[in-house]
Amino acid sequence: MTGEKQYTIMVIDDDVTIGNMLQEALQKASYRVLRAYSGTEALMILEKERPDLILLDLMLPGLSGEELLPRLSGILTIVMSAKTDLENKVKLLYDGASDYVTKPFVIAELMARISALLRLSGIKNGQNAAAEESDGLLRAGIFTLDPSLFCVSANDREVSLTRTEAAILQILMQNPNRPLSRSTILDRISDNTPDCTERSLKQHVSNLRKKLETLDGTDHIEAIYGIGFKLSV
Fold first, then answer.
1. CB 138, CB 144: distance < 8 Å
2. What is the largest CA-CA distance in the chain?
3. pLDDT per residue over 21-61, tens digit each?
4. In this structure, what CATH number is given to the domain that contains residue 166?
5. Count of structural domains within the chain
6. Which residues are within 8 A (CB) of 16 and not within 5 positions of it... i.e. 6 or more apart?
7. What is the pLDDT of residue 5?
């Protein structure tokens, strides 16, 4: 990876042995590694750094992994846990996890999952196509969203949105090329969009997807099975 900005992986695990093993494997694969040994320490680091992906243990001292997960919105997160029941895995995926590996895990498989998630997210050289906000407008890729007028433009074309569609697009544009869980989207837009429920979210996203496609003929919103949705810009 000479000459390229490294991907940054954050390991949040209070087990020093596992953390050291992960750090060694990640650094050998040319990743930059951040370490945190508790949920509280992780939040302090995240105030200054934004990793490309997080490896999160659930059994943390103080703030648990389950409590920390909702605060990691927009960051790819692989949960590492000894819990094997399907119901728990499904809940964590809905709560914002990008993937789940059961301890003990095979390091080669975990490294493959990391690589696949980074590739899926569209991250290039460890950097996201970050959104820009100015003059009340939000810009990401070819799109410019006016959240107050509920309209989005691209390629000298403009399309009107409903309040709910604008709210969904805003959170997707603030996290470009990153899968967002359904629960994360619903939590972030719930105050202003009472008509959007877990049952109706899929239809709102479908309507938004069709409107964006009219701007450049490209389908920009991808449904990520078992997780949620991703806006490609």
1. yes
2. 55
3. 999 999 999 999 999 999 999 999 988 888 989 999 988 98
4. 1.10.10.10
5. 2
6. 37
7. 54
